[in-house]
Amino acid sequence: MASNKVRKLIVEVIEARGLAPKDGKGTSSPYVIIDYYGQRRRTRTVVSDLNPTWNEVLEFNVSNSSKKQTDQDQLVFGDMLELDVLHDKNYGPTRRNNFLGRIRLSSTQFVSKGEEALIHYGLEKKNWYNWIQGEIGLKIYYAEEELPPPPPPPPLPAVEEVKAESEAEASIPPESASSPPSVPAVDPPENGEHAPPDVAPPDPPEDTPPAPEENVPQPAENAATEIISQPPPPPPADQSPSPIPSTPEHVHQPPPPPEDKEDIVIEPTETTIKWAPQQPSQNDFIMQAPSIARSMSEAGHLKVPVINGPQPIPRSASVASFMSDFSDQSGPIERSSFDLVEKMHYVFVRVVKARYLPTNGNPVVKITVSSKSIRSKPARKANFFEWDQTFAFSRDAPDSSSILEISVWDPLGPITDGAGNAKFMGGICFDVTEVPLRDPPDSPLATQWYRLEGGGAHRGDLMLATWIGTQADESFPDAWKTDTAGDVNSRAKVYLSPKLWYLRATVLEAQDILPLTALKETSLQVRAQLGFQFQKTKATVTRNGIPLWNEDLLFVASEPFSDQLVFTLDSRQPKGIITLGAARVPLCSIERRVDDRHVASRWFNLEDPKDEKRVYKGRLHLKLCFDGGYHVMDEAVHVCSDYRPTARQLWKPPVGTVELGIIGCKNLLPMKTINGKGSTDAYCVGKYGPKWVRTRVVADHLEPRWNEQYTWKVYDPCTVLTIGVFDSWGGFESDGEKEATRPDIRIGKVRIRISTLQTGRVYRNSYPMILLGNAGLKRMGELEVAVRFIRTAPTLDFLHVYSQPLLPLMHHIKPFGGGQQEMLRSIASKIVSVHLSRSEPPLRREIVLYMLDADSHSFSMRKIRANWCRIINVIAGLIDILRWIDDTRVWKNPTSTTLVHALLIILVWFPNLIIPTLSFYVFVVGAWNYRFKSRAPLPHFDPKLSLADSVDREELDEEFDGLPSNRPPELVRARYDKLRALGTRLQIMLGDAATQGERVQAMVTWRDPRATGIFIGLCFLVAMILYLVPSKMVAMAFGFYYFRHPIFRDRMPSPALNFFKRLPSLSDRLM
Questions:
Q1: Is omega for the bond preceding 964 within 30 degrees of 0, making it cis?
Q2: N or C: which end of the chain has fewer CB within 10 A?
Q3: Strand runs (DSSP E) across 18-52, as ranges?
Q4: Are strands 5-17 and 53-61 parallel, antiparallel or unpaired?
Q5: Cis bond leading into 441, ω under 30°?
């Protein structure tokens, strides 16, 4: 039956703030007009108010009857919501509705009911000369409403009237009889959809012939349209034959069905239903037996010659070939979605069901291609013996055979190639060279009944389909594959991270706890728990039983919100902590916000957590909200793959797409030993934004080939795509509980920054996979991938992204501290890992944490030295400039020093050339360095920069030691002493920096009266000189003095430096 719900877009116009005065009297009378999907709605007018409040709900119908209709509507109306704020000319001296601002929103920003939040949008200009200011607050969401019941059908006409109309119709001339009917017949709905009840006509009685359609009045233009779009319905099956009126010539009549329905061997698919059935020819059934449709009793009397096994049979060319040309189709053909990787050809066999098998058990199907043989699961027994399984056999192997054998067995015992307890019930052989080739976007191949041969007198039929396809086939992901050893957990899958929110809980105060703490000075504290997260406020002391905290506690929550936030009020006593009461808050009742607007506080009653009876123990004053304006970090900021806020309403349109083709690995090392043989079951994991992908597991191969391709939307080019390779233990989970708990082994990881990719260029490179462990640097092999970035946004919009803040606005309005952000990131990583580990097949916890770099901030002496070297490399250019200035100053190159003097004269007398000269110099340096731009592949992990080649084993062991340490006490003490020595050097450096700063302060603080007197006297003298002497002359004199020849210099330090070093500091006061 048809759906009783209709989808609507709800726009709640709440308020506007700071509108521009446009009525000539310093105010405005605004109203709002909204256009969406060809519909227009208007609010009331708020008279003379620059901060109006409407609180009106506007509804818009959203067409969801069919995808085709929706696409046509979008072509006409678009999917943008346009809102205009206007001044009403009826209020004030103006003669027109003055424009106050507009906004345009895409439908991709709208959310479902329950996720909406009040958002204030800044009003935009319509033209560049408009004077616009202010913002408008809206709530926009989709909602579903129940449709009213359809009206009852009209009463049926009497039988005598229908017969009279039939006689009148017989007298109509042929010209009028062939005219198109006024009321079209209702077409059976496609794709399983049902016709609306108000359109379907009532069914006539069985003994009543159908009334002529010409007698029903309807506009002619509608009739012509309906006849073209809807064919006539088939006659009812239970209606007795009766005289049929003349049929229009242009109405297509379907051919009669075949006499024997059992002879139709090709199952109707979604594609074949759309065309009228054609009369099958004799060649279409060349592979079928003369009579497949017969009863079991008839089959028992047939005498079939006994043969040793099934013989290969030819494949008819008339059976659904997918090599036809699609040039006559009107729609555009999409390019292949696997154009970045190599095509891998497979022989697909889909086994659906069987009939007329002489067994009451659960038979199995055995398929053999080359040296690969696989057995299906036992059949489900219903009207037929059903399997509905698909198998994919690789055709890339050099020993691939051209014979495909399919046999059915009754599993009374183990199935073997020779004699065994299993009963052979027949088989089929195909020549693989004659199997049709299918490549998407071709339609799926129809299944077909085949006679089983060689099974004795009782021969059954097997429904199956065979074709040769690639990894782009839609049956490939769920099919049994030869390179995965049939492991159910080895299939390629796409995962999505849970939607994470920051939960802000502000603990304000507590009341009515005085009877429990009367006349005592009590230290009270509030603990909050959400799942495995614990937070607590500072302890506050109160004497009146009304403690105050006003502290924010932050949590990470994931949708769906099924947990409870538990607050516990504790009293810290000398004997221990006493729980005074607890309050539970369901997460689904907490308000959501997308900005920093005020959230209303609420009171929650405290109850005894140990008592089943709800006894009032006081109440707690809280402010709770989900902050959707933040981006919940689960990755480090410098390698983050997404910076969008949690609230979907704040998302901006994507700027492009990135396509990743995971081709394969080379020269992998054996990661485990199975039955005395080194083995690697490798698979890849890719992560970008909330989307995770996992390739299939290629079993027991040191050079696996996946050739899988995935696509992500890019919202910010300054993000990172991460690809990891792992070795799976999933195929050995049945060997014992000990091996089942083993974690998957890391092989390597690759990071690709999207901003380094040129638009439209394909980067196909092999990256070395380097793993750093306790034993040092180890090369695990190479990963070959292909990457392509396609820009979809206009060029100016794409370049404008670089001027926008990296993180959402809430990170700048109410920023988190460094320690707090790292704690929240660790919690988010754990939530994501737990969520993905519950998928099927699971993405294990250790894999997720490794991809998210959850342990990247552990202490490491190697990283300290590497960061120090990075700092030196950054300031190396500045150091080179200072050295060049010093060489110029000492006249190491007289020609260069002379030119510097000339440049100094020009810049002093023409100071407006300083900034252009510096800008031009930077341009020349950048253009010069373009010649030395790296032509190598995309940047990857650098062992030299990481100091991984020269690191000491002892430092690596310390770096990968867990917390708490599990090393011997002597080793831990030695490391502690080493850390103390490093801390001593850092202490000296900090002391020297503090000393120099205190000497600067001592110039004017009269710590040394003589030094301060000298300094301020010199400052007064310099000020008088600069007042009297032009600044250009002073700058010229200072420049010539600084670049004077060495014969005019003294080897001793300058008097200014000597004076500075004599200033006192506070270092002599440290104990």
A1: yes
A2: C
A3: 30-36, 39-42
A4: antiparallel
A5: yes
- 711-737 as b/e, with b when 16 or more CB fall inside 10 Å? ebebbbbebbbbbbbbbbbbbbeeeee
Closest CA to 464 of 442, 446, 437: 446
State how far the Cα of 583 lies from the Cα of 619, in Å rounded to an integer.
Answer: 8
Distance CA 803, CA 117 (A): 27
Q: What whole-number distance in Å separates Cα of residue 451 and Cα of residue 427? A: 8
The values of phi and psi at residue 150, to 5°, are: -65, 150
- Render the burial of 567-598: b for 16+ CB within 10 Å, e for the rest: bbbbbeeeeeeeebbbbebebeebebbbbeee
Which of 276-290, 711-725, 856-870 ranks highest by mean pLDDT? 711-725
Beta strand 423-431 with 312-313: parallel, antiparallel or unpaired? parallel
Give the CA diameter of the chain.
Answer: 132
Could you tell me if residue 257 is left (phi over 0), alpha (psi between -120 and 50 degrees) or otherwise beta? beta
Q: How confident is residue 693, by pLDDT bands cut at 50, 70 and 90? A: very high
Task: State the DSSP H helix or E strand holding residue 1065, giving kind and residue range, or none if neither.
Answer: none
Strands 135-146 and 111-112 turn out to be parallel
Confidence of residue 1001 (pLDDT cuts 50, 70, 90): very high
Q: Cα separations (Å) of 400 from 391, 638, 704? A: 16, 48, 18
* Contact (CB, 8 A) for 341 and 709: yes
pTM for the model stands at 0.74
Quick one: which of 568, 577, 573, 578 has its CA closest to 607? 568
- Residue 581 CA to residue 703 CA, distance in Å, equals 62
- What is the rounded average pLDDT for all residues in the chain? 78
For 889-928, the DSSP string reads HTTSSHHHHHHHHHHHHHHHH-GGGHHHHHHHHHHHHHHH
Q: Are 424 and 416 within 8 A, CB to CB?
A: no
610 near 657, Cβ under 8 Å? no
Neighbour count for residue 622 (Cβ, 10 Å) = 23
**3-class DSSP assignment, residue 1023:** helix
- Residue 161, judged by CB atoms within 10 A of its CB (0-12, 13-18, 19+), counts as exposed
Comparing 275 with 955, the larger pLDDT belongs to 955
